[in-house]
Design brief:
Helix 5 runs antiparallel to helix 6 and helix 8 runs antiparallel to helix 9. This protein starts with a strand and ends with a helix. Strand 4, helix 7 and strand 5 form a beta-alpha-beta unit. It is α/β, with parallel strands linked by helices. It has ten helices and five strands.
Length: 159
Amino acid sequence: MSAAIISDSSSLIMVGKLERLDLLTNLFQQIIIPQRVAEEITAKEDGVAKHVLTHPLFVISATTNHALLALLDGTLDYGEAEAIALAKEHQMILLVDEKKARKIAKNMHLKIIGLLGVLILNRNHGYLTKEEAIALLEQVKAMDFRLSAKLETDFLSRL
């Protein structure tokens, strides 16, 4: 189990809609949510914020790296920019799924993981069976979680 991770909104929303926060809490002792990400999920009326923001392992934090935040604001969306800035500031793993944000984070030498990586880690640690991981993949795809055919094939082969 890793100590902590910084999370963008997309994976939080997915695990929240699935009512499977355990997919994150199985693996991390603390999930840090950037202030902007908390605002994004709170603005949605899908009930996710209630589950996430009241869970004791989820902590809201704001970045102090305002220069990097300002630089990223013109390139990424509101929450992604702060998630990357906060991950860089604390040199922590970033949970992010959007392709553009992942590319920028990689270029900044940040360690990243996405929702599929979280499912694989849960499978590897025995929290999910292969069948459960595949079923969760199908559920998130039904919720408009976008992934390429190559990414899906890689995920299935890694299970």
